[in-house]
Amino acid sequence: MALSGVFAVVGATGQQGGATARALLDAGATVRALVRDPERPAAQSLAAAGAQLAVADFDDPASLRTAFDGAARVFAMTTMTSGRGTTGEINDGILIADAAKSAGVEHLVYSSVGGAERHTGIPHFESKRRVEEHIESLGLPATFVRPTFFYDNLRSQSSVPEDGVTVVRLPMPDGVPLQMVAVDDIGAVAAAVLIAPSRVPTGAVEIAGDELTGSQIADVFGRQAGLPARFEALPPTASGDDDLQAMFTWFATPPSYQADRALTAELDPQLQTFEQWLDGHWGP
């Protein structure tokens, strides 16, 4: 049965937006997919699945406001990887919130990050918190979905084994559990909240599908490859820039992420463990 109202999805051709749009379509919702280029294969795939396409560009605020016209509920996320860093991310989030408020959107689901509200000092966590704070300042009805570490970030670990051993290296100590989640499950949770915001009565939920130490992550890769496995801890400086170094330093001192895994599973009955996710994503 189709759900009433239009559900607008910002960044619908991206990972989180695409997952949310697909989950909404599967639930029978009317989806308006906001895209920069409607001719892109990802946009055309959404259209073929039944989504409306609306052109919207952060460089053209009026286009975003127009794309929200008549939408009952909106999903949005922001990223520091646009080339404009965390400042650009904050500006994008403010633009989205202001446009949603102006359009009279009844509820906004913003995908933030686990720990955003806990003053982590991690630049790309703090930028998302600034967006949350702006949304709150507008009095716009909203729910913050706060994902933990993405399984997808570990894809690079499925590399060629070394001397017949699967080796996983991460800039964090072993023995410290890391909470993680699949992008598809972020979309499933976001869709569930968009459809029924009252399912998250606190207005925010931190989400995870699994919690594993470095050695346990290595063991999963080893089972997939049919090989012995080991984990090697790297120093946080090996992560590269200051932002990621701050994040891995935060991971090293638990508790870092604090997901509500019971509520996550309630919102997404198909929630995947890391091993289940890797079963469907194994390979180069």
From TrEMBL:
<dbReference type="InterPro" id="IPR008030">
    <property type="entry name" value="NmrA-like"/>
</dbReference>
<comment type="similarity">
    <text>Belongs to the NmrA-type oxidoreductase family.</text>
</comment>
<dbReference type="Pfam" id="PF05368">
    <property type="entry name" value="NmrA"/>
</dbReference>
<dbReference type="InterPro" id="IPR036291">
    <property type="entry name" value="NAD(P)-bd_dom_sf"/>
</dbReference>
<keyword id="KW-0521">NADP</keyword>
<feature type="domain" description="NmrA-like">
    <location>
        <begin position="8"/>
        <end position="277"/>
    </location>
</feature>
<protein>
    <submittedName>
        <fullName>NmrA/HSCARG family protein</fullName>
    </submittedName>
</protein>
<dbReference type="InterPro" id="IPR051164">
    <property type="entry name" value="NmrA-like_oxidored"/>
</dbReference>
